[in-house]
Design brief:
258 residues, alpha/beta, 8-stranded parallel β-barrel, binds glyceraldehyde-3-phosphate, Deoxyribose-phosphate aldolase, Aldolase_TIM, EC 4.1.2.4, lyase, schiff base
Amino acid sequence: MTADPNVDMRDAARTALACLDLTSLNDADTAADIDALCRRAQTSHGPVAAVCVWARFVAQARAALPPAIKVAAVANFPGGALDLQHALADVAEIAQAGGDEVDVVLPWRALLAGQVIEVAEFLSEVRFASRPLTLKVIIESGELATAERIAEATRLALAAGADFVKTSTGKTKIGATPAAAATMLKEIAASGLSAAGFKASGGVRSVADAAGYIAQTEAVLGAAALNPQRLRFGASGLLTDIESVLSGAESVATTSAY
Ligand SMILES: O=C[C@H](O)COP(=O)(O)O
């Protein structure tokens, strides 16, 4: 008897839903957009892990959602300048508004310029200021480009105490890729930090895309890591395909172009 591939896709869709940071980070986002996002976060198939929004929408999202759905917001986003005061102001705004999670952009241009100590200090200060919130560090893997630099950024994020290392802002040409994920997952495993997680974001549009990252995560971190404490998907467009698959319809999305 051959395995039914639709069963695997439904499993992947269920995992992707439970691990989804449903994201809206458009410059023109309005309160009505965030209301709609929060309604979408509570699907007939179950809740997403979190919504991810601009800091100015945290209080609204927190009020609209049950406690089980976390509110994440971005800091130092999307540019990733080496601007600690800006990042700390974002973190303070998110914390004061009742946010649960901070997604901060690592100063990747500074890292490319060799300012390793300055980047490490930036991450350490952001980690200190953001406790007890969950901290995800966005390394912008597409701009770092090489496995060596992606590995170095991942190590810096983990050394600073990041809860998750996240691939991309979704605002640059290249978002999450299987190659970047492989490097990041290898570094997470090598760190020995059993609570550290991985977040794929930027261009993740289909359950087939998500299934690939789920398989990679399981292969490197183990099946026990396939939960929202260790794995997230940051995506503005993935939920439609998840719902299609869980409703028994064909996947409607095409896989990532990367
Ligand atoms: O942080 C998450 C990303 O901004 C989402 O990127 P996306 O719009 O390509 O799904």
